[in-house]
Amino acid sequence: MTAIRHDLLERFGTAAYQPATFLDRGVTVPFTTPFLLGARIRPTETRSGLELVISNPAGGRGFYIVPWAAMPEVCSPTLHDRRLWQRLSDQTAVTPSLVRETARAVAAEGLAGRAAAAAVAEARGAESAARMRANFLLLLDLIRRTETREEAAIPPQSDTPQNIETRARRAVARFAPRIGVSAEIVAAWLEALAAAFCGVGVPGDRTVSRTRALVAGLRRMVEEIELWIAQSPDPGEQHAAVLVTDAAKLTLHCADAAFRDLDGLLSDTPTLLRAWREDAAPLGRRATRPDWLLDGWQVICELWRDAEPDSRAGALWEMALLAPVMPREVEDWLGVTEDWDRPTRLRRLVRANEDWRSGRMIEIVARNERLRARAE
To answer: Cα–Cα distance between 353 and 364 in angstroms, integer?
Structure first.
């Protein structure tokens, strides 16, 4: 587990990394091998295969761009990582949801430890519950928007479960002819919409969605790091912290814009159904924007959370190496304009991460398995 093939890495070399699109940035894979922590998978430039983007542990701007097939050759991956590599090798396209589900399937086998396997079962249960809540809230809105004043004397959310079901069936049957489809199709579309948006969360859901919980955790991490900066006596130790907080604030700004856009959409079920009928594909892509924006930040938040107070300076350097680069595609998505290159400029000064070659490999793998379990 300690062998790193420097000769192969040098053959692949390092390259500048300023992706224009989220697909070019790639998707973080939850590897547990120290050298692969935070590595991303993406299609090759010719779209003929997959490749890995690995942060240069020597620091600086360069990244190793390694063919996917060469991953077991450049290092000695854990059993979990080798299995995950095998499961992803057959994919022709990658998305955060695909990598997440593939990683869950591997973790469920127990290859990342019992805690990770248990976390997967819990996450799957939470996702199923979120999907049901989203479907229910979309139906409640459809009821409110299709009933007469007399029928709406009792707010649907305050009615009995049996009456809510009756009113929901009536709302679906009443709305379906307005868009020229059957009630069964509308019901199926509502289920599909709930599945697409359950990770985002429908307005009115009292349970915080998966992506909104990550935003809250990221915001909390920024606040804690800024407090750490204010208390740090060594300005030289603050550079990594500034890089992490700058990149995080940029992500939070973009995520807030994405949620505002989606909340407006999800607050009007009839309009949502009409858009789904017109063309489901672009609507489905909009639903994935928070996942793409936040990809890579879960492990960074967990690194900060896992670090003891006296080791947070070292953790920040590792976090800085992994801080995601924001693609300019976000301008097209959300109309957000920022200094996209600032985190990249700061990255030039990030120092080497020595932990992966310091003899602490088993300890770091155990830590990475903890992060893997908590990231669900």
So the answer is: 12
